[in-house]
Structure formats: C-alpha cells, structure tokens
C-alpha cells in the first residue's frame, strides 16, 4: 500500500516586469492562510456593497467590487503576509501602516468591510466579555450606518425621527452615537483610510510624501504605505507625475501600490476604447517599469492566492532596493464572487466593465435579486421583501434596508467560526503594532509652537546661528537676516530663504521645500543648512529634489505634513513644508491643496501646514512674456472658506518675516488653517524707509494692513488708497512727496493679508478700515479687479481703481518697466489715478448718496 504523501505548500507565481519587456517569474510559497474565510468575507463585503447601492439608489458599484479582494487581503492578511499593520480599535494610531483608498469612489468596499470587521468584534466582545474586542462606537462603522450612505450629518441626525423610527428596536444601535454619514468618496476620517481620494488622482499623488516621511524621521522599514487605485486614474496628471516623484525621493518598498487593472472607466474602456487596440505598446506595467519602478504582475487580481503571493514578495523584497513598488493585477469591474465565465448562477449575464461603474438599477431590480439569491444560496440566509418590488414608503425602505443588512451580517452568527476568526485575526494584527517605534524626533512636542516663530520672537538684527546635523555630526554656521536696513536693494522674494532658514534653525530641520526645478529662482534654495535630502546619504537634508511637476510637488509636501508621530491627537509632531513655482502656474497645485484643506478642517489629529509660494507673481515677470504673468492665476488661493488659508501679499523685504511668522503663529494654533500662500514678485527694490510711514513699526506687516500715509489733519480728507502687490506699492511710495506737494490728502494703506487683519483687535480694525472708508476707497494693485484685496468695498471703488487688468486686456510683455507702464501702474499713471480719485471725491460721494436715497 502506497503511503499518502502530504500535499506540499501552495505556490503562487508572481512576475516582475522589466523596462525592456523582461519578465521574471517568482514562485512564492504561501502558508496556510485560511482561504475559505477570506472568500467568505469578500462575498459578504460584495453583498453589503450591493445593499448600499440598492437602497440608496446611487453610488459606485463595479469599481468597489473589483477592489474587494485587495481590500480584504490588506485588512485581514496581517503584517507578516504583507498586509496592513494596524489596530482596528485605534485605526489612526500614528505607527499604523497607512492605507490610501486613492480610488476614492470605491469607498463602498471599505464601508462594507469595516462594517463586517466591527460587527465581528462586537459579537466576540458580547460573547466573551473580553475587553480586547471592545471598540469605541465613535470610531467604528456600525450596521446602522448603512442608512447614512451618501447622506449628510444633518440628514442622518433626523432620519429616524422624521420617519417615526426613533424607538424601533431594529435601529437601537443609533442610540449609541447616532447614524454616521458615509460619504460618496473616501475621506481621511474613515477608519484606516488616510486620504481624501478621488479627484484627478490626488489621493495617489500624496503617497510619495507619506512614505518619505517615515524615512525622514528615521522610522524602521516595517512602516509602509499601501495605496489602491485603478488604471484609468493612472492616466491622470497627478498620478502620472507620481512616477517621477516617488523614484526621486527613493521611497523603496515602503510605498506599495495595488493597481486594479480592469480596462474600464466611467463611460468607456481604456484599451479598445480610449486607446485603439492596435496600439499594443500601450502597456500599464511597462509604463511604470520604464519610469524605474519595481513592477509586479499576477494572473488574477481578484484571486487571494495571487494577491498574497504578491504581498509576500513585496514584504520580503530587499530593503536596499529604493525603487517604489506597484502590483498590476487584472481584475473585473463588476466582479462577483460566484460568477463563472461572465454569468451568474441564475443564468443572468454578469454586468461588467464600464457599464457597472454606477449603481444604476432600481430598488430590488432583477439584477439585484439575482446577486442576492447567489448570496442566499451560499450562506443559507433569506433577504426580506426583495421579491415584492420597491418599498412603498421611506420608513418601509429604511426598515427593509436595515433588516437586510442584518441578514447579510448574520453570516457571522450562522458560521460562528468565521466571526471568531475575523475578531481573533483583528486582535492578533492589533497586538502586533509596535506602539513605541524608535524615531529621530520628539513625538510629544510641536516645534512650530516655539515663541521664536512669532513676530514678537523674531530678531531684528542679523542673527548668527549654528545647526548640527544629528546624522552626520556636521555643524553649519549661518547668518540670518530677517530685517535689513532701509535702502538696501533687495526685493521681498529675497527674504523667503531667510524665513525658511530661520524655521529650520528653530525646529532643527523640520521645514522641507520642494520646487519645480526653480528652487533658486523663487528663492527657497538657501532655506537649508544641509542641502538635498537623500534617504541613504543625507537624511539631514531638507531640500527635496523635484521635477518640473507642480501638482505632485505640492502633493508630496501635503503627504509629508499630513503625517504625525504623536499619540496625542492635539499635538503635531511632524514636519511643515513649502512648495513653490511661478504664481502663474500655482493653479496646478490647487486641487491637492483644496483637498488637503478639507482634511485639515475635519482631521481627528493635528496636521502640519503647507506654504504655497506663488513666486514671480504679478505682471512683473515681463521678460518671460505673458504666459508667465501671475495676475489672475494666483487668485485660486482665495478660493477657500474664510479662515482656512492665510494669503500674504508682500512688497517690501522687511514685511516678509513679520507677516509670515504672524501667519505661522496663527496656523500652528488653529487646526483649520492648513495653508499659507505667499505672493511675491520678481523685481528688486530698495528696502523701504519706514521712518517716513504713518506706521513706523518694523513688524507692521504682522497686522495684515498698515498705514503708509495717514490724513493730514490740516486738510480735508480725500479718501483711502489700498495698495497691494510689489511694483504698485513701490511706485506709490515713490510719489508720496509729490502727493503732498499737490495737496492730495489721501490715506494710503498696504494690504499684506486680509486674513491677518481680520485677527486684529476691533479698535485697530476700526481705525484702519472704518465703515465709512468702504465708500471712499480706491485700489492700486498688480493683481486683478476680479478679486479685490478687501471684502465689502463700495460700489464705485472699481471705477477709480488701478489694477493690472484695468483695461480688460491681456498685457503683452517686454521689460518690467514696459509691462508696468502698459498696465498703467507706473508712478505717473498712479499719480494721475490718485489725483482724479481725490479731486472727484465730492462727486463720488454724491453719486452714492443719490443711489441710496432712491431705495
């Protein structure tokens, strides 16, 4: 009798793809990992995704289904198998791996899975009383939260009451903390997810910065960043730029992207649709490989054996290979666990590809019933009311919705070994999280709260400093000049490196910059003590290498500043950063910055602050021609909720440090403020002599607006001139004596920052900007009249103002003097404009009085 031979270990084949069509297969030995349990959890997840779509009548469908095996493998695989290291009970712990649902529309796969995980923990906790299984309802996704899918917090707060269901036992979970709204795209407040994913690939674009952060602070290589995305998003600019950025920062295997390649977008296929099939050279894996990435591929990205083979190979890959990693896994958009060869068990044709993108079926439609019945057969359950048509009322819909969510989750009770396995698996993964990881920075303090980073703490004389690189021991001496003597010819942009170097001195190298191959041109190059950052050779560097890719540069800094090493959610122990380019090109940074601002507003933990440098703003970039003029484009930085960004418009060198550090002090103490935007122009001008100003305070810029010239009390007042921008203000200052000689008695105020001004005491605001002055104002600005420098200016202000676009034409170009003259902002034009404004004061005021009297 032949003895039985024990089956050998299971082996998965994973292929690495080279840039020259080389393909190297790797046989990856798989341990016994409980494949049946993973399949069951994936089926439950798919069913809950379908229930969310069915009863909400909207949402994304095919993409979340396609992502589901990846998602389940990461959350239940465990760190040793290459999955996430995290604690489901404290998913925002700073030393958890970072999970980015970059394809944010696929968030239903996460809501569904998290619901299963938390319900398994709750059942185990109830059965055993073991506190290891206890989860805070404020953190968890509960079954009742299904009712909050694609609803607002305001709507979910009254949903049960409006439908007479407040005390219905089916919804008793809501009494714990209400119904949590579940958004239509991923939010960084969602359990393990660490990014607001969705628009234009911005979720993925932050990944390089998030991974680099852990290298920068010296964390062990075990900490990693996973991102899930689809191939259509990889055609978007932000994601394309990540190819270069991540390799530039040498993040290595710390960054691992799982690509769901299903050749399906929203309303077309990629190959055979957007790209004709005959162009065989269009190959996703080859594209990433050609950019130097470490590219893996598998046969089936919806198969757990293939997925775990790839995750294990990634985990075991040599740490000294600094190429970031991406897995290209073929998936099916509209995937269904029990479908075979494109057909459901009922015989219905499976809806796949781009037609499956939205949940486009009516409630309890035949296709939904076919999917639900396959689940019923698999697990021996029965959904209630689904064969009786759509519920007739909202309350009936809510009852059926919650009932059937509970039916799907009842599999955890019908198969108790499954529920116990999930809960035990989660606790085991959680207990593997190292909560005391060694890093190179103090995890208990925020260095940006240092009083030396406030206007009051700034030195007004040259400051000689020494900083030592903790990694190399190199000591560098430097003299920092935040304030210069009057008359020295240096424009405002020359002060940018000085404030950057002061930040790095005070915080010991926690202020990083990245610029689009323009670090010297926009004057951030000298913000650093130890040069370019390199994760291997120069970890003390704070200047990041960067391609001319503004979008991903901003995204990289956002990824960096959004990380934190502090266990105290009120403390930011991380880094701040700056990304800059010409003001004309900064709109390329707007989308990632806008999304980051949303995260800053709602984040459960403190994040850092990004400075956007709109260098070479205004029309003064004349020599580069009008393609580079920053007149309209920089106004995107006003398109945020008030109080969530601080804009700074500097014209004089000595305004920069006081104004910027007033913004730093405010942002460091205000969680909602995640962005500071600096606007500076190219020209150099003599540093202003403030002894001749009405406000002689050398740090007056910290107040947001200050008076250059006040009314002569011996003459009738003639109105207020609000000056904003470089050449405009410099040229106004140059004609002060001429105005006096002509008896033109106007006040002149420099508008540095409306946001800083709004933070001043009311008596100062009333002094500088009294209500009456709103109707007696003109503006002189190198910016656009479409966005006045102050809110609520009176109805005739624009008529008398001088802006770079005052004639509603695109300026041409030439020298700086040429274009300023063409814009009507040269000294003579400004004098004429102010003189007209002053001399027609009575006529201006009378026109407004007549308009008001006609009401």
Q: Whole-Å distance between the termini?
A: 109 Å
Largest β sheet strand count, sense and barrel closure: 7 strands, mixed
Uncertain ranges: none
Q: What gyration radius follows from the Cα positions, in whole Å?
A: 30 Å
Question: How would you describe the overall organization of this protein?
Answer:
With 855 residues, the chain is α/β, with parallel strands linked by helices. 34% of the residues lie in helices and 12% in strands. It contains 26 helices and 18 strands. The chain has a seven-stranded mixed sheet. α10 links the parallel β6 and β7. α2 crosses α3 (107-128), α7 (207-216) runs parallel beside α8 (237-248) and α16 packs parallel to α17 (587-602). The longest helix is centred in the N-terminal third of the chain and has 22 residues, at 35-56.
Mind sketching the topology for me?
Elements: E1 10-17, E2 23-30, H1 35-56, H2 62-77, E3 98-101, H3 107-128, H4 153-162, H5 174-177, H6 202-205, H7 207-216, E4 225-230, H8 237-248, E5 255-261, H9 284-290, E6 294-297, H10 304-316, E7 325-330, H11 366-379, H12 394-409, H13 411-414, H14 416-431, E8 463-468, E9 475-480, H15 496-507, E10 511-515, H16 550-561, E11 576-582, H17 587-602, E12 610-615, E13 645-649, H18 653-668, E14 675-679, E15 705-709, E16 720-724, H19 726-734, H20 736-741, E17 747-751, H21 754-757, H22 762-768, E18 777-781, H23 797-800, H24 816-822, H25 827-839, H26 841-853
Parallel strand pairs: 3-4, 4-5, 5-7, 6-7, 10-11, 11-12, 12-14, 13-14, 16-17, 16-18
Antiparallel strand pairs: 1-2, 1-6, 8-9, 15-17
Helix pairs in contact: 1-2, 1-3, 1-11, 1-12, 2-3, 3-14, 7-8, 7-16, 8-16, 16-17
